[in-house]
Amino acid sequence: MSTQTAVAADAQANMNRTIIVGTLIVLMAMGTRATFGLFMQPMGLHHGWSREVFSMAFAIQNLIWGIGAIGAGMMADRWGSGRTIALSALLYALGLVGTRLATDTFSLYMSAGVLVGLGQAGTTFAVILPVVARVVPPASRSTAMGIASAGGSLGQFLVVPTGQLLIDTFQWSGAYWFLSAFLAMAIPMAWYMRGRPDQAVGAGPQLSMKQAIGQAIQHPTFHFLFLSYFVCGFHTAFITLHLPAFVTDGGLNASTGAIAIGLIGLFNVFGSYGAGRLGGIYSKKNLLSAIYTLRAVGMLWLMAMPLTPFVIYVFAAWMGVFWLGTVPLTLGLIGQIYGYRFAATLSGIVFLGHQLGSFTGVWLGGKVQAVTGSYDMVWWLGIALALIAGALCWPIKEQPITQAPLAQPA
């Protein structure tokens, strides 16, 4: 084997390894996150906490996740992704242990809110997808990010029913120990995600981090991506946390809600991969617009039909197709427009918009249900926001932004 062939083979093996490990880490992080709604009722009954208390903990988690994603992105871009992912996985596991041991609302907010939120910041899309994109040739980047995004959906499909089984078998307290150990497995896996972004193919001109952020913030498209991602976060966080409770409020059993969350994950395995694949062929902004608009159709179905397991499962399957397909398209647009040198940092900033939406969705869901005894108002708001997000994607400009190199000293 020639030296050139050996180098090419090593590069291919590294690319495959990065995609596989990145997908597994996202699977573990997002799958565990999707179980939190299952704990709301048994944990609330044990401690005497209202649904609104648990919703606030989850809202804090989403807000810290969004803020932390900016710091995690900067850390990954400056000091490497491996350290960032390992530290984040450790914080995530410690946060789950803290949630198990929480005895009052403050300790719940600090563990399930702050620690888990910081852990999610470096083990999910904003950090993992740019790492995957950097090792993949430009023609395959959108598909590769779709595969990694599908890992989050597969985790939702596999881990949520497993989480319900753990709760049924070991009660909610025992289930948390298993999930903590599960997340800790991501710490050694971070070794395979190490690397410096400045060696990435197509990383773009040599801007400073401050210059890259400044150029992006002055670009209107960056704001359209931020605002539409807010809507994505509103939908996914509200549904993930409150759909199981919405189902039981309607007189159906808890397993129906767990199956529905799992179905969302199953169908989004195909949805995320399909969105990534299509994003390499067609306009990413048009695909984003279609995804948001079609989400509104699913929520209209839920509001118009009588609440039965069949209606819930159809809703879950439909929403699953369009669940996380926004991720490879949104982060793909960031890399395509602004380059990949500081893609994790810029993705973290846009992801803050997603998490502000998540905070709003989970908090408002708990607040509205507590005041009105129903989630209907939030569902109708979700429909309106889906249509607004679809419209926000149309003015996005997909052409790469003109970037000036760093100024040379006189």
Q: How would you describe what is shown here?
A:
The chain has 410 residues and is mainly α. It has a single domain (9-392), classed as MFS general substrate transporter like domains (Growth Hormone, Chain: A, Up-down Bundle), CATH 1.20.1250.20. The protein contains 16 helices and no strands. The chain has helices at 3-33, 36-47, 51-79, 81-101, 105-123, 125-134, 141-184, 186-189, 209-217, 220-249, 254-279, 284-304, 309-321, 326-338, 343-372, 376-392. Helix 2 crosses helix 10 (220-249), helix 4 packs antiparallel against helix 5 and helix 12 (284-304) runs antiparallel to helix 13 (309-321). The longest helix is centred in the middle third of the chain and has 44 residues, at 141-184. The chain is globular and about 65 Å long. The termini are far apart. The model has no long low-confidence stretch (mean pLDDT 87).
